[in-house]
Each structure stands twice: as C-alpha cells, then as structure tokens.
Predict the 3D structure of the following.
Amino acid sequence: MLFNSLPFVCFLAATLILYYLVPKKTQWILLLAASYVFYWIADWRYLIFIGVTTVSVWLLALKIESINKEQTDYIKQNKASMSKEDRQAYKGRMKAKRWKYLLICLIFNLGILSVTKYTNFVINNINSFLSEAKALRMVDIIVPMGISLYTIQSLSYVIDVYRGKQEAQHNLFKFALFVSFFPQLVQGPISRYGDLAPTLLGEHDFDRKTVSYGLMRVLWGYFKKVVIADRIITGVTTLITGGEYTGIYVFVAMLFYAFELYCDFTGGIDITIGIAEAMGIKVAENFNLPYLSKNIKEYWKRWHITMGTWFTDYIFYPISVCRPMLKLTKWSKNHLPRAVARRLPVYLSSFVVWLATGVWHGAAWNFIVWGLMNFVVIMISQELEPLYSRFHKRFNVKGKAPYEAFQIIRTILLMSMIRMFDCYRNVPLTFKMVGSMFTSFNVGRLFDGSLLSIGLSASDYAVLFVGFAVVLTVSLLKRKHGEVRDLFYNKPYFAFYNVMAVLLVVILVFGAYGTGYDATQFIYNQF
Amino acid sequence: MEELLEILTDMHPDVDFTTATNLVDDRILDSLDIVSLITEIDDQFDVVIPPEEIIPENFNSAEALFELITRLEEE
C-alpha cells in the first residue's frame, strides 16, 4: 500500500476520521492498530521481524534502565562511606554490566538487519572469487519494509537509555507504536524517542488549523511526488538505461535525477510529516532547503537531516572519542606532524561513517563507492577551507549574491555527479558515463529532437518546467519568510482552502498516472 | 579555565572565547574542532568526555565546557 495509491488515501482518511472520533485516551492505540494493519497488508511476515525487534529492544532497555537505577540508588545510599576511587570503580563495573546488555541488543538487531539485507550481497562477492561450479547459491530471503529505518530508530532509543539520556518506556505497546508509526515506517524521518513520543502518545483535540496545515503539507508532498517525480522518472530511466545516452545526455540525466530524487524524497517526507501534523504529532524535519546549500558540508546538514545526526551521534562521536582512538591520537601527536595528528581521529571516524552510510543505503558496491566519494569530497573541501577563506578575503566575495549563486550551483552539480553512482547502480559504468560528459561534447544533440524521444512529450516538459518554477518559488519564500503556509493562512481563511483546492485539482489533473496507472514506488522505500 | 582558553584560542585565534556563547550554534566550532578539543582535554585535564556529553549546550561557551570538565572530574 504505497502512499500514492488510492487504497492508502482511503486508509489514511479512515484513520484520520477515527483518530478524532475515538476517546482521546485511546488515540495512540488506534494508531498502533493502524500501523500494524498497514504493515500486515504489505506482508504479514514483516510483522514477525518488527515484533522481534520491538520486544527485544524494549526488554533490554528496561534491563539497562534497572541497572542505571540500581547504580543511582546504591551511590545515594553509600555516598558518605564511598571514596571517589570506590565510586569510580563501582560505576565502571555497572557500566560494564549495562554495556553487556547493550551489546546483546546491538548484535541481535544489527544481526537481523545484516542477514536479511546483506546475505546475498556477501554471497555474490564470494562467488566472484569462485568458479561457476563451486558458486554458492543465493538465498531466498525477505527484506522487511523499512527494516533499516526502524532498526536504527529503535537502537537510538536503547543507546539513549544506556547513556542515561532517556527514560525507558515501560508499556510495550506504546514502545511498539514508536517503532511502527505507519507514516514514517517506510522512508523516515528517523525519529528519536524523546522527540517523537510526547506528541505521538499524547492526546489531541481536533483543531482546524492543525489539521488544515497537515493536509496542506500532505498535498504539497503529493504534488512533488505525483506531478513531478513520477513524470520525470520516465526520462531519467530512458537516459540511464543501456549506456546509449552519453556526453551531454549524462549531464541532462544528472540534473533530471537530482530533481526527481528531491521531489520524490522530500515529497514523501512532506506526506509523512503532514499526516502526523494533521493528528497533532510532531515528526522531526528531514530537509532544510538542501539545494540552496553553499557547500557540501552544509548540504549534508540540510539533506536527510535525521540520518546525518543519527550517524554523527551514534557512530562518529563514539568512534572519535573512544579510548583506543584517544590513545592513537596521543601516539600520533608524538610521532606524526601536529596537523596530521589533529585530523587523524576525525578522518578515521568520518571514513567509517561514510562507509556505513553507503552500506546502509544499499547492499551494492555502487552505494559503498557513493558513500566513500562523499567522504573524499568532504575531506578535500575541509583541507581547502583555509584557501577558500583567503580567496574570500582577497576578493571580498563572501555573501555577495552572484558568488552565492555560484556556490549553490557548484554544490548542486557536485552532489548530483556523485549521486550518479546511485543512478546507474554500476560503478565502472558510472565512471565511464560521467567521464563521457567531459570527453564527448555532443551539445548539438540536445536540439535535434532527441529530448522528445526519451519518453517525455512537450507537454511533460511544460508541466515539469512549471513544477520546477513552483518548487523553486516556494523554497525561496521559505528561505525568506519561514513557514510558507502562514502566508496564506493569515489572509482571509478561504485563501488557504483555495490553495488546497487548486493543489488537489493539479494533483488529480497533472499527476503522471498514465494508462493503467500503477503507483510508483518511492525511491527511499527500499531502505 | 585559563588552560582551556589557551586550547580554544590556539584553535581559533580570532575568536574571543571569554565572551562567545554560541560556539556550536554559530558554527564556530565544527566536528573537527570538537573532536580535537576532546583529545586536548583528555591530554591536559585527564578527563574523557563521553559521546553522550557531546551536545551543543556543553560546547557553546568556554564556561559551559569548563563546567562539564569540572563535573566529570568530580564524578
């Protein structure tokens, strides 16, 4: 049941109506039931996987919390008789005890994720070293929808409990809702328990403005997905299939894919956040105008924000400041140049983070290379920063509109180029095709009518052009005014509802449904 | 405190760390600085800042960071 399918729209409408009809105390129970029905419709076997993750994380978090509590109580009772050393030694023993349970939780759940998602990738790589006769057979294994997302979301909860930053949820069913909340189950955002739970489990009265704002955002998401992403995908698929479209067409594919992915992913997230908002639930923002970033570091702070912060908080910092890394840094300070020693922990941790980001995106080499390419580019930019700084001072260009425009376009092009690994899904082919952009200057082919033979008609281009103008305008308005919906809501109230009605008509009329329309998968659903 | 100010000034000579209160929020300190800072603090104060303490509130000013170091020393 995809977001952009009619059954989902009916399911959503029914859930929303029931949500405000049932007693407020039971709203979260309705959401849990709806989430499990949503998952059950996708495949009943998925319920086993999400159930096992939910119960295991819930139980182990409770155990870890009980050790935390035991420690606090013991220190409180024996404060007077304990020396600082005794206290530290006791804390160390308790920490080791907590760590044991956390480790069990991590190994068990990451184990499920690895087996379901990466077994065939490993077999495939082993087979490349074996003769055909000795090749291992691929296994027929199901990959539960959203397993990467709900696994790391659940793990962030248990790690926070381990760190003493989060109280454990004692009600299994309330925790189950946090793991399975249906709007964000398939493509995120990756929520933190402390951020999501208060509104997710809270009681909400019907409020016209809240529901209207939520539904407006849902419609905006559908507009980006159905009118733009589902339309441009035809052209992108043609351009990247078969290796026929080289040179300038790789550049076109690069821009088209950048636009498609943006509208697909941000559209999906708008639908998620909008649904939650219509129920009074606050889900973390996942994007902040990423295509207006002036450099790659900024881009990664604005694109898929919840994934970035997850990797920073739970992989980057723990690796950077762990004891072995601190020892390595100390050693390198004495044996290596100061500049190298200073960078070593950050570069090593960043390498691991980007490798993990690549692996997390998919069980394929193209994703791993994509992750590492990001690492290389970010590190190069980091090293060039003093040079940029001197350049900005020397030519006084920082903050000037033309230079900012240059920086934004440069960032879009660079990120779009790296993303071609994701697009072609084949590492050597990506290098070959991207290389052809610089060697084959067949710009003339853009004007020989070929653009109309990639599955997009003149009217498709017209819709895409207007769609692009609308998305750009809304982005710029957001940058200038913040919340764009306020601009309409503060006018006579019918203006807001007129915009909603227009959006709905545009989605129905200009949505790329085609003959025998079959809802197109969201790109990020595969995670 | 002076030792800490010295470490910070060494990283960013152009910043007045006695008055700055939004070091992380204003992006004066990035992840490279924070990790370098933690290794320096481990070196000079023999205090290891655990990952759960790496939050903007603890790194937004020299004072907040010093309070964190003092608290961790006492623990």
